[in-house]
Amino acid sequence: MGWFDSIYSWTVLAQGMRHGRSGKPNNQGCRHVDFVKRDIILLEQVLEKIGIETGVDIIAKGRSDDFDQLIFIFKELLRGKDIDIDRLTRSEMTAIVEILAEAVKCSAMGADRKDLYGEKLSFYEAELVNIAEENISKLCVGWEKKKHKLESKAKRVQHHLSDIHEEYDRYHRFHEEKYYRIPARMLPFHFYLPAMIMIGIAEFIFNIQAFSVLDIEKKDIYMIALAPSFAFPFLAHLIGTKMRQGLLLGEQKIRSYIVLGVAVASIFMGLASVLYLRADYLIGKGVDLNIWINLSLLGLNLLFLGSATAAAYASHDPDRELENIYDHKKALRRSINRKWREWSRVASKYDRKRGVVLARIQAIRDDARAKIDEYRLGVSLTSKESTPEAFLGSVTDWLFMPRNIGPEIDLVPPTLEEALDTVSSSGKVKS
Question: What is the SS3 assignment for 97?
Answer without folding.
Answer: helix
